Amino acid sequence: HYRCRSAFKLLEIDDKLHILRPGLSVLDCGAAPGAWSQVAVERVNALGTDPAVPTGFVLGVDLLRISPLEGAVFLPEADIADPGTQRTIQNLLPAGKVDVILSDMAPNATGIKELDHQKLINLCLGLLNLSQIILKPKGTMLCKFWDGRESHLLQSRLKEQFQDVRTIKPQASRKDSAESYYLARLYKRK
Ligand code: SAM
After folding, report:
1. pLDDT in tens, 71-87
2. Closest Cα to atom 2, ligand 1: which residue?
3. Which phi and psi angles does 151 have, rounded to 5°?
4. Which residue range is the domain that position 120 belongs to?
5. Ligand 1: distance of its center to the CA of 53 in Å?
6. ipTM for the predicted complex
7. Could you tell me the CATH number of the domain that includes residue 146?
8. What residues does the Ribosomal RNA methyltransferase FtsJ domain cover (predicted)?
9. In angstroms, what CA-CA distances link 10 with 4, 104, 140?
């Protein structure tokens, strides 16, 4: 029932590392077509399906349009790097804060590996700036990157701001792809 096979990457990561729990609020960056948001809605109990556990919240943002999904709030046709988008996100979040930032964002690939790598690293670094405003202390950030010469820069920036940073290569990612994820946990409060 998932909109996209990418769901299995998040399911795999979450089954192993338990980043989504009932009651958490989640920002899903690069959410279209919405499969990660579907997983997040289920795992944080955003619909309140299980009345015995807390109800969470999911906000998905993308440059593209996204079909509505019960339990999620979507901000479509919005660039995460745009300060206007960032203000809107803050206004849409409960108390302006999130527990978990997910990013499966990918820029339109030019085919020039080095350039695509750099663009994605820059998107992630921008997200790290946004996290300083919206991420709760001890919060989590999971972000996709394409490996290349600037990966270590992103990794060291994450290590400055989070207590626990690890690299994940899900089985569900195609073996030949340069795609990996950084999972950064325990955000240090400023
Ligand atoms: N996780 C999604 C799912 O499971 O349905 C798939 C995400 S897809 C691999 C990457 C998405 O990142 C694209 O839809 C693209 O439009 C979005 N994206 C790329 N740059 C973005 C930006 N600056 N702001 C918001 N979304 C962006």
Report:
1. 999 999 999 999 999 99
2. 31
3. -55, -40
4. 9-30+81-187
5. 30
6. 0.99
7. 3.40.50.150
8. 2-185
9. 11, 9, 14
